[in-house]
Design brief:
single chain; alpha+beta
Length: 205
């Protein structure tokens, strides 16, 4: 007596299912990629890769990332090569979502620093902040356009040390906006929104 024939599964049908499952898995990974980055050591790796041209180090303590919501970075620090803090901000938020930036990166939007602390040391015509960001400030322009950005400082504190005259100042409650236009030959606009309090003006070091 002959055995009942077994159903033959189409090889092409099997490959279609595998391709579909792979596509679904890839879509899920892509959709959750910002969350995965913000919750794993990938965040530190990406920050290090993005800040490779900084003369110093950039540290980000945490992040709130999503494709469709403005990204938020927490406990952001910029340090010089000796480990001294130049800028520290508990919160930094970009006004545009990651999807919006990916679709149009000509202008990133507004980057807001909440209550940052800036330790600025001036020697001659140079500062520690300019030294740290020299690669971005002095880089050779390859186009008449650059990525536009507005930077907002909300209730910041500035510690300024002048090494030449050995004096220091502290400015509290600084709020303002710096507008960097896309055109390289256009002037950067700096606008102070809130008056600040100056402590220790001219205090000797």
């Amino acid at each position: 007596m002959s055995e009942p024939s077994k159903p033959v599964v189409s090889r092409s049908f099997s490959w279609r299912w595998r391709a579909l499952l792979a596509g679904v898995a890839f879509g899920a990974i892509l959709g959750f990629a910002p969350t995965i980055v913000s919750k794993t050591p990938l965040l530190g790796w990406l920050v290090a890769a993005a800040s490779g041209d900084v003369h110093g180090t950039v540290h980000v303590g945490g992040a709130q990332l999503s494709w469709f919501h403005p990204p938020v970075l927490l406990d952001v620090e910029l340090r010089d090569p000796q480990g001294r803090v130049i800028i520290a901000a508990p919160r930094m938020e970009l006004s545009r979502s990651l999807v919006a930036v990916a679709l149009d990166s000509r202008h990133l939007g507004t980057l807001t620093f909440d209550e940052p602390r800036v330790n600025l040391t001036a020697t001659g015509d140079d500062t520690n902040l300019e030294q740290a960001l020299a690669a971005f400030i002095e880089g050779e322009p390859t186009s008449r356009y650059r990525t536009g950005l507005d930077v907002v400082i909300d209730r910041g504190t500035l510690h300024l040390v002048d090494e030449d005259v050995k004096e220091r100042w502290q400015v509290r409650g600084v709020s303002g906006r710096v507008r960097v236009p896309r055109e390289r030959d256009a002037a950067t606009d700096i606008h102070v929104i809130r008056e600040a309090e100056i402590d220790g003006a001219g205090r000797r070091i």
